[in-house]
Write a structure and sequence with these properties.
By secondary structure, the chain is an all-alpha fold. The protein has one domain. It is 81% helix and 0% strand. It is built from seven helices and no strands. The protein is elongated, with a radius of gyration of 25 Å. The chain starts with 15 loop residues before the first helix and ends with a helix.
Amino acid sequence: MSRLHIHSENHLVRRIGWLRAAVLGANDGIVSTASLMVGVASASSGQTEILIAGVAGIVAGAMSMAAGEYVSVSSQFDTEQSDLARERRELQDNPEAELNELTQIYVKRGVDESLAREVSIQLMKKDALGAHARDELGLSEITAARPIQAAFASAASFAFGAMMPLLTAILFPGALLIPAVSLASLIFLGLLGAIGAGAGGANIVKATLRVMFWGALAMALTAGIGAIFGTTL
């Protein structure tokens, strides 16, 4: 008699909640802070002004990321809760119709109708709302919206990413600041893109080149703006 072997699997989708916010925050922290500092430096500002701009960018950016992520994910959370509340009412008011609805979902997936109905009965007996949330609404514990977690992840990752160009500017002042911050930021962005792609199971080379391209473009544009205003004002 053989035993049923059950093994645990660590799916990448479990990381999607925090990974999205963390990668977005760190990427934005590097790009925005480095671009801001390069732009200020291109305007022929002194070391103190450049560092003040960098610190202000970190604080403002981290708070902006946290607030934006919290509002965005809270809207998703409210929508999910509204759908669950409506589903809960429908299960209470018309359970037979909900049973038929769940049965047809499984039938459309290729399950025999009699078996689909039996499965639906058993699932609804254990957790009717959970079964409908998962199979009718596409909601699950893994992908559920978590506003506070997303806000903290975004703010912390933004600050972490922004500290990299700021520390580079402290270590390489004067004429070396612009090339050092630009090069270091591109390296940081490349590493971030590779880490994010590896954690999410995506193509590492494509993700790395993509994030480095947009970072270089942002720094080039702000450097050009800083140089223009620095010579005309």
